[in-house]
Amino acid sequence: MSCDSSPNRFAVPTTVIPVACGYVTAMFDFEGKEENDLSFKKGDKIEVLERGDGPNDWWVGRVNNTVGEFPGKFFILYLI
Q1: Tens place of pLDDT per residue across the chain (80 aa)
Q2: Which of 19, 40, 45, 65 lies in the 20 to 30 Å Cα band around 2?
Q3: Measured on CA atoms in the order 56, 18, 1, 10, is the torsion positive or negative?
Q4: Phi, psi of 25 (to 5 degrees)
Q5: 61-68: long-range contacts, CB 8 A cutoff, minimum separation 24
Q6: What is the pTM for the complete model shown?
Q7: How far apart are the two ends of the chain, measured CA to CA in Å?
Q8: Are 59 and 51 in contact (CB under 8 A)?
Q9: What CA–CA distance (Å, rounded) separates 72 from 48?
């Protein structure tokens, strides 16, 4: 199998990569407005407890011992 040398080979995907559970890293700060929202800062490592199916879905996660919902489009995968 050959490597793809096209300039877009490292392009950011436009859809959410499915994760059953694991961790993601926040790309932006998010200040929740509802009681069940999970607030976090850019760079926070969030443990994913439940995930949505699309990029505009809300996910359930834990950061700093707090559990809540957060927008799925605010993160990048954190590979361990």
Answers
A1: 333 444 544 444 444 444 456 888 888 899 999 999 999 998 899 998 988 777 678 889 999 999 999 887 766 654 44
A2: 19
A3: positive
A4: -115, 130
A5: 61/24, 62/38, 63/38, 66/38, 66/39, 67/38, 68/32, 68/36, 68/37, 68/38, 68/39
A6: 0.65
A7: 26
A8: yes
A9: 10
The SS3 of residue 55 is coil
In the chain, what are the domains? 22-77 (2.30.30.40)
Query: Among residues 43, 70, 71, which one has the least CA distance to residue 56?
Result: 71
